[in-house]
């Protein structure tokens, strides 16, 4: 290990342990030579309805594309904080779209899903201009962003409203997502979903069908915010029961927050999240994934 990389790793780890602006540190340590970025493209009229595009450098023709939604309990977050995700996937030959969306208290459920559908529609219609193949389209998210991704992949209502369907996805990827969380316990989330009158159709697990795209679910065994057994395990089991190809992985050195941080170059030692995502996207026959096991690492 080079002294430069060791120094970067130590700085990132120290920041995480001290809870001192970890995202800023990760982005500061993120290489800039592996991608080109196009910023703040409007996919709607609201100031929050903008997206960034990360393309591999050098450019790759007909690259797969991932639309990524970040977490933050539907009340916080910015696409500008997740450059490390864009860089990581772009370094593996993937075009990445990171979209902002409206948050509480500006909006409640389901407005952020409508935004997500609009961002996906923009990507599907325009991403070929940026070197990607819309026929190799994936949707991905972490935490509440994984919820958004799952609803777009499983509940046809949202894409139908923009003239599309979940069949446009070659697959979807969820990191530490809440997929079955009624009754709501988190006080920050309760008003987002009209607690105590939270609609049952807001739950991804209630929209599982045999038509769902191939699925990659990743969680941390140490997640204290989103129960991995109920959410990741429960959704994986229900998808498999109707014949949907599912890959499912659990990592023990991570927690809810560091699971996505492990995608970044300084923290990849925590868990092979990036490797699993890359392998899922590169798989030539997603149907083969239904026979794979669900290891804990």
Explain what you see.
- The structure is a single chain.
- The chain is an alpha/beta fold.
- The chain has a single domain (26-287), classed as Rossmann fold, CATH 3.40.50.
- 30% of the residues lie in helices and 19% in strands.
- It has helices spanning 3-18, 22-28, 83-90, 111-126, 144-154, 157-160, 229-241, 258-261, 273-282, and strands spanning 35-42, 50-56, 63-69, 95-99, 132-142, 169-175, 215-220, 246-251.
- Strands 1-2-4-3-5-6-7-8 form an 8-stranded mixed beta sheet, sandwiched between helices.
- Helix 4 (111-126) crosses helix 5 (144-154).
- It is globular, with a radius of gyration of 18 Å.
- The two termini are 23 Å apart.
- Residues 284-296 have low confidence and may be disordered.
